[in-house]
């Protein structure tokens, strides 16, 4: 039995198209994914606004709410909760230069429209969390935007969301780059500073994705610990990454097992989940996988995460204390590796 509740997004099961090639698997309908997520052992679904309401631009705000009810009915049918709604601001032609921090007022207004619709959808789906992965908020050409003005525009947009609804919480999913070259909010440290500058810091926190931390050259377990210390870790996207390259969204723990262990360990030690937080996975299956393998990365990631929960349960804190007293960190490090190798 896991102590955590796990969540996943519909985008985590996809047809395998990438920047260099077309789809290699068939698209799977949303309802079938939800059914399968439940079978695999997930408790909740993560949403983009247009996962919940496809073709969102074609609807009035009232119609968006009606459409979202259809998605809610599917969740209810399979006993699944919704974890969060995230405006997918990086897809639309209006946001090719960013949304909240775009140089064009029209784009900024469009971004707010999507943010308000995301809040409306979250209400229908029964969740309070709005995730902002600020994909295109930043620059490709440094001189095209002022970093000072961009930061202020982001704070302003978050303030408007906080005003729009008194119950919602905003979670910034930080990432240093990709698709932009330089992001406005690259790490959880930046996220905390932005939070403090908003009109209600108690409702603005963070979501840490393992791969995003690694792309910033940071240890995700450390980023998790930092946000926990601030009382502002309200979501995670566990996955893995082979060094500093493109965002790989690999299955959790397959490249950096010790870091994966430490992410689970620090979450467990600090009561993550006690306020209803989910462990979200944000993983993608390899393009080489066939149709039957569409969910294999989710099955594997869950298996690895739960196995690491067991390892963390076994962690000998007395031994750790002794090593610290003796200042024998070589001994402690060997212990951890032996634990992970099954030699302990
Ligand atoms: C990109 C991501 C995103 C976000 C998702 C929810 C597509 O690197 O991690 O996944 O997690 O959009 O905000
Ligand atoms: Mg993510």
What does this structure look like?
The protein is an alpha/beta fold. The protein has one domain: Divalent-metal-dependent TIM barrel enzymes (TIM Barrel, Alpha-Beta Barrel), CATH 3.20.20. It contains twelve helices and ten strands. The structure holds 3-O-methylfructose in linear form and magnesium ion (MG). 3-O-methylfructose in linear form (3MF) is lined by residues 11, 48, 86, 131, 133, 173, 175, 209, 237, 247, 282.
Structural topology:
Layout lengths: L5 E3 L21 H11 L3 E5 H4 L8 H17 L3 E6 L18 H21 L3 E5 L4 E2 L7 H18 L4 E5 L8 E2 L4 H10 L6 E6 H6 L4 H10 L3 E6 L18 H13 L9 E3 L14 H19 L2 H10 L2 H12 L4
This protein binds 3-O-methylfructose in linear form and magnesium ion.
3-O-methylfructose in linear form binds next to strand 4.
Strands of the biggest beta sheet: in what spatial order? 1-2-3-4-6-8-9-10
In the predicted model, the low-confidence regions spanning at least 5 consecutive residues are: none
Number of DSSP strands? 10
For this structure, the CATH topology is TIM Barrel
Cα Rg: 20 Å
Tell me, what's the shape?
globular
How large is the share of residues in beta strands?
Answer: 5-15%
Query: Distance between termini?
Result: 21 Å
Mean pLDDT comes to 98
Instruction: Name the CATH superfamily classification.
Output: Divalent-metal-dependent TIM barrel enzymes
What CATH architecture label applies? Alpha-Beta Barrel
Main sheet specs: 8 strands, parallel, barrel
In sequence order, what are the helices and strands, one letter per element?
EHEHHEHEEHEEHEHHEHEHHH
How would you classify the helix and strand content by structural class?
A: alpha/beta
Bound molecules: 3-O-methylfructose in linear form, magnesium ion
Helices, by number, come to 12
> What is the subunit organization of this protein?
single chain
The level of helicity is: 40-55%
């Amino acid at each position: 039995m896991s102590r955590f509740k796990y969540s996943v997004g519909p985008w985590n099961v996809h047809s395998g198209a990438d920047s260099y090639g077309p789809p290699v698997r068939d698209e799977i309908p949303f309802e079938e994914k939800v059914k399968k997520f439940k079978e695999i052992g997930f408790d909740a679904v993560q949403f983009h606004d247009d996962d919940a309401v496809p073709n969102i631009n074609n609807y009035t705000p009232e119609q968006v709410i009606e459409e979202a009810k259809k998605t809610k009915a599917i969740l209810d049918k399979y006993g699944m909760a919704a974890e969060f709604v995230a405006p997918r601001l990086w897809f639309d032609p209006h946001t090719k230069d960013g949304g909240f921090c775009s140089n064009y007022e029209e784009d900024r207004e469009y971004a707010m429209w999507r943010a308000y619709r995301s809040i409306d959808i979250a209400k229908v789906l029964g969740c309070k969390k709005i995730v902002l992965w600020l994909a295109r908020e930043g620059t490709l050409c440094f001189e095209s935007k002022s970093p000072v003005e961009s930061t202020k525009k982001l704070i302003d947009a978050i303030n408007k969301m906080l005003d729009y609804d008194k119950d919602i919480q905003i979670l910034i999913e930080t990432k240093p780059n990709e698709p932009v070259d330089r992001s406005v909010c690259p790490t959880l440290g930046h996220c905390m500073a932005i939070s403090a500058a908003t009109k209600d810091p108690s409702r603005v926190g963070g979501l840490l994705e393992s791969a995003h931390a690694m792309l910033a050259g940071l240890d995700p377990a450390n980023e998790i610990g930092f946000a926990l210390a601030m009382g502002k870790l309200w979501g995670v996207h566990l996955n893995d990454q082979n060094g500093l390259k493109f965002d790989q969204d690999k299955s959790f723990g397959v490249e950096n097992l010790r870091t994966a262990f430490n992410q689970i360990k620090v979450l467990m030690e600090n009561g993550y989940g006690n306020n209803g937080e989910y462990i979200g996975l944000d993983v993608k299956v390899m393009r080489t996988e066939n149709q039957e393998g569409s969910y294999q990365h989710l099955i594997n990631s869950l298996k690895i995460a739960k196995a690491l929960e067991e390892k963390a349960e076994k962690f000998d804190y007395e031994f750790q204390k002794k090593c610290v007293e003796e200042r024998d960190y070589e001994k402690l490090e060997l212990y951890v590796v032996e634990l992970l190798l099954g030699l302990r």
